Amino acid sequence: MSGRYQSYSDELRRRAVDEVLVRGRKASEVARELGIAAPQTLRSWVRRAEIERGMRPASKSEAVSELERLRKEVADQQRTIEILKAASTFFAQEASRHRR
User: Fold this and answer.
1) What contacts 45, CB < 8 A, 6 or more positions away?
2) 2, 5, 39, 63: which could form a disulfide with 31 (CB 3.0–4.6 Å)?
């Protein structure tokens, strides 16, 4: 299986991560038991879960990536707001023209 990408279900990932984080089992043991090809794969899932659960701080590169994603999202939302403002102004003007 080495060198090939293998997809695991979200349920398997959750179960494996919980075995390590909640039950305190070793990643290599859980990976072998659940058929995860590489224990390092499970370790990376555990690291990500620790960050998401606030148990570990994100690395600087992860924090920078998240900040960039959030900035793009804010910019997109601001563009949407501007479009909605322009549309509401247009429709308000149209409505007032039709009332006369």
Assistant:
1) 13, 16, 17
2) 39
pTM to 2 decimals?
Answer: 0.55
pLDDT for 54: 86
Q: Tokens in use for 7?
A: 């997809």
Contacts of 34 (CB under 8 A, 6+ apart): 12, 15, 16, 19
Q: Are 13 and 45 in contact (CB under 8 A)?
A: yes
Distance CA 79, CA 67 (A): 18
